[in-house]
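re: the backbone from monday

yeah here it is again, tokenized this time
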């Protein structure tokens, strides 16, 4: 089994720390997990050229998205993790979502309907406010045919001061280790 984890944080921080922890938990279960850090990729904004996309069922923008989309088709499941910015994902992750619209346009849902997906958002707001972001990303996943088997919203601090383990130490998520193990077991 191969899980593709996509991290939408524009910096190294809580989201990446969580995805690395999940990678370790999956490895313990014998599951291969490739992590894509979107901040390290060139992802241009969708140009809305639906005349081309609808006709050719492909995107004509030359960047890293075709490679990511190919990996998405080959994966057995997904973990999407991103920070919460005003109850939405940051622009980097939103650009990724927008570019995935070709899956919907090309009616490619067949590639995803058997693939289990987990969505995680991290932020400084209340869990309920962060949950709005989580639900929106889960809705995107369902729209392109993914089976969302788990969602979780974690509270964090935005100023980490170099402590990338803060998400586990700040006391805002007392059951974080248990929650991550449960999520990993869903894949």
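seq for it, each position gets an aa:
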């Amino acid at each position: 089994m191969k899980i593709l984890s996509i991290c939408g944080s524009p910096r190294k921080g809580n989201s990446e720390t969580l995805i690395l922890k999940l990678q370790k938990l999956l490895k313990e279960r014998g599951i291969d997990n490739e992590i894509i850090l979107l901040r390290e990729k060139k992802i241009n904004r969708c140009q809305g050229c639906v005349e081309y996309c609808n006709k050719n069922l492909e995107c004509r923008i030359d960047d890293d998205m075709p490679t990511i989309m190919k990996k998405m088709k080959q994966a057995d499941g997904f973990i999407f993790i991103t920070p919460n910015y005003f109850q939405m994902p940051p622009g980097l992750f939103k650009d990724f979502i927008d570019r995935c619209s070709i899956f919907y346009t090309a009616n490619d849902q067949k590639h995803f309907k058997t693939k289990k997906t987990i969505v995680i958002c991290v932020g400084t707001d209340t869990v309920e406010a962060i949950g709005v972001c989580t639900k929106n990303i889960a809705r995107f996943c369902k729209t392109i045919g993914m089976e969302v088997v788990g969602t979780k919203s974690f509270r964090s601090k935005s100023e980490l001061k170099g402590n990338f383990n803060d998400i586990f130490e700040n006391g805002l998520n007392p059951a974080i280790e248990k929650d991550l193990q449960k999520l990993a077991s869903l894949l």
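The chain has one domain: 2-185. The helical segments are 14-28, 50-56, 65-74, 91-99, 101-105, 127-143, 166-169, 176-185.
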